Here is the input.
Amino acid sequence: MNKEKISIIIPIYNVEEYLEKCVDSVLNQTYKNLEIILVNDGSKDKSIDICKKYKSQDNRVTVIDKKNDGVWLARYDGITKATGEYISFIDSDDYIEKDYIEKLYSKSKENNYDIVVCGFKRIDDKTKKVYSNEMNKFGDLIISKDRNVEELISVNTSLWNKLYKKELIDKLPNMKTKPKVLEDMMFLTLIYPYANKIAFIDDLLYNYIVREKSAISSIKKDDIALTQQAILEIKEYHIKNNISKEFMNMFTCMVFLHFGISLMFRLSYDKSINLREELIKIKHFLNLNFKNWKKIKYLKLFYIITKKSKNLKVGIMKKIYDFNLFRLFLIVYKFMIDKIKIDIKW
Here is the structure.
């Protein structure tokens, strides 16, 4: 039986020192029927020259050279060129194990899964130390939108470390508002409703490089406003398409997790902002636009424990929020990872 073509989309911006290792790891896959789409998003270094070199050496490589529009549109441009039955995204400063595609594809074909997620390593760029192994304890969990959609809350929201059926990606709407931060989370919340079954592989097949310059990217207040506007557009899209109550509750929990926790954590590194004021603003945003965010059972500890859900950490954070202890939590959390150098991936 002929194996189906798989499109690998790699958005690229100023990563000349990492790009060859990334692309080589794709070209050397045990799964050979690949279409590799390199999207140069207006790089100012030699990334485009590296892309052209690979195109001249391997006919599976396609290069898109475009002005800098950000990673959302870079991926979208790659999608429009993709001709494979499946799609996988890889960040250009990361690399994959040689059987990454083979194992994800085999798992998908095992029971017609729409998305397959694998484990990954977080690796320090300078020391090559493995900080942590992530997404490698989901075992035989199968997420079904009709049965346990809430488990999506604790699935990492990076687009990489996943294989998608192309038909899911084709349903992605062309949003009017392009988010500046939390792009991956928003992308996934737009395609999750169309995925009937999501499976997991505990194998650590993706290597995520933790770069000092990109660990905490700078966030502007304008970026927050634009990102809030984008998530509200997604909310309206789901309402218009009569999304299920269960999915909408899961979606609301993800908004709390990524706006109320992740975004505030990143914003806390900006010494020019008043974190207390920003927390008040984000709570107001949640209260105004996601009125039931405090009451959803998916984040209640009793429900999480009795259902043996993967959402325990998020449930604990919800309690910390309820008791107005989030700023104190951030102080302790940042002290441990920044000063004591104890890496904690919350």
The radius of gyration is 20 Å. DSSP finds twelve helices and ten strands in the chain. Strands lie at 6-12, 34-41, 61-66, 86-89, 95-96, 115-124, 130-134, 143-144, 162-165, 197-210. The mean pLDDT is 93.
